[in-house]
Amino acid sequence: MRLLLSSAVAGEVGDTHAAAVALQEVYRHASFRGGDPAQRVAAYFADALASRLLLPPPAKAKTTTTTREEQFLAFTMFYQASPFYQFAHFTANQAIVEAFEAGGRRRLHVVDFDVSFGFQWPSLIQSLSDAATTSSSQSSQDDSGDCCDEPVSLRITGFGASADELRDTEARLARFADGCPNLRFEFEGVVNNGPEDGRHERIKTDPAATVVVNLVFPAAQNARASSWDPRSALAHIRSLNPSLVFLIDKVDEGSGGGKGAGRCGSASLLPRFAANLRYYAAVFESLHECLPADSAERIAIERDHLGVEISDAMASLDRRRHAGDRAADQMSRGWKERLESAGFEDARLSSRTVSQAKLLLKMKSGGCGGGGFRVTEAGDGKAMALGWRDRALITATAWRPCRRSVGKNEP
């Protein structure tokens, strides 16, 4: 880790030779397949640094491009092996169901700003179908003939990286929904193209529907898509007047705050680089505890999913570095600050949401991590975090439009 930071420091001040020397030493000790988690995460960060500094990759570097199919398989294996994404998705879905129930309507419109492979939504589809079936059965027994006989309608507007990925996601979700009674399902895919493509304006809502917005790992989307503008997205989200915005994101220790950390704008990106390194070191360690040392699945997950994320995160740091001071400062703002500036306030998470997260973790911990994962509450019940040992990895928060007017600051 020390050598990686030395290389990053040298690269930051333009000393490419010193950066290359430090990287060569990193590669001597790093490993993509064997070794301990620290050696493996070092290998992927070394690759990302070499690419960032435009250095020729050493012989042992990973130079092949990951295909969409490989990324899908790696994501699937990670989803099954670790509670990481399941915590995020099931926690968000519980809050979405509660917002839908509170609205008292039969139509739900979910706007998902990074639908990816759609793994979050089968559990929501199943929950809505089960609730509608129970309601319909009770209505039949009561012979009331009221509006509860109408199937529940779920519409998902999902943003994705490509038309092919969105078509595949729609097909998977539609097949699953076909087997769920008392549910009408509709999916609309929106490709993330350029900054001025007007994709946010293409979101059309039904006045009779409960609207919720899903922001799961928006920083990762920002890292992947250089054209994604959080300010524009949040301004349009506010115009939708959603009943709920659910945010799950990485715990970012590099966005500023502590003494010496500063804000990671154009002046220095090193605090954010160090935060990314610590974060992925913890993720690699947790995965090491979930899967055997010689596991082909673990190797694929690290190579085709986590390694890709690390590369994207480093590319995002470069965009910050080359942005102007004001743009870099906007990119550095945390999502809590952005949502507050856009006219949202955080809401308390329900006891059901917290209990479900803890139950999920208890069920998963038997075969993963030896109990190393932790769920903790914070912010007077307005935030919940999933952590590995003593480090928080991701946080979950719920947001609603403020009753007061929108703040004066930009989102």
Summary tags:
single chain, 411 residues, alpha/beta, Rossmann fold, 2 domains, nine-stranded mixed β-sheet, 51% helix, 16% strand, globular, transcription regulation, transcription, TF_GRAS
SSE topology string: HHHHHEHEHEEHHEHHHHEHEEE
- Over the alpha carbons, how many angstroms does the gyration radius reach? 22 Å
What's the number of structural domains?
A: 2
Look at the structure and name the CATH superfamily of the largest domain.
Answer: Vaccinia Virus protein VP39
**Mean pLDDT across all amino acids:** 84
Q: Quick one: CATH class of the largest domain?
A: Alpha Beta
CATH topology of the largest domain: Rossmann fold
Largest sheet: 9 strands, mixed
User: What form results from the Cα inertia axes?
Assistant: globular
CATH-level-2 architecture of the largest domain: 3-Layer(aba) Sandwich
Indicate the percent of residues in helices: 40-55%
**Structural class, from helix and strand content?**
alpha/beta
Low-confidence stretches: 256-267, 324-332
Tally of DSSP β-strands = 9
Beginning-to-end CA distance, first to last residue: 35 Å
Total of DSSP H or I helical runs spanning 4+ residues = 14
- Hey, roughly how much beta strand do the residues contain? 15-25%
Region (SAW): 315-400
Pfam family, one: GRAS
Family: Belongs to the GRAS family.
InterPro entries: TF_GRAS
